[in-house]
User: What shape does this take?
Amino acid sequence: MSKKLIRPTEAENAQITAAALTDPDNLPLANEELRQFRKARGRPQGSGKKEQVTLRLDTDILEQFKATGNGWQTRINDALRDWIKQH
Assistant: This one.
């Protein structure tokens, strides 16, 4: 069962806007302010401090990291950083 979106009429929308404008603590957002809530397409911008590489790992090692859930690539990076500090 699909739900149908019922939009307010122009008169209803005008009443809603007028009511919102009477509340000084909760004024409607301007279009410029609303734009900040739009989801950007694609991957988030990186820090610029990392480089993409191709790395071949043993299957069992990779499975162990992936089994820990999201963030497994960061955990590999952290494990390599720890190794560097110790050697």
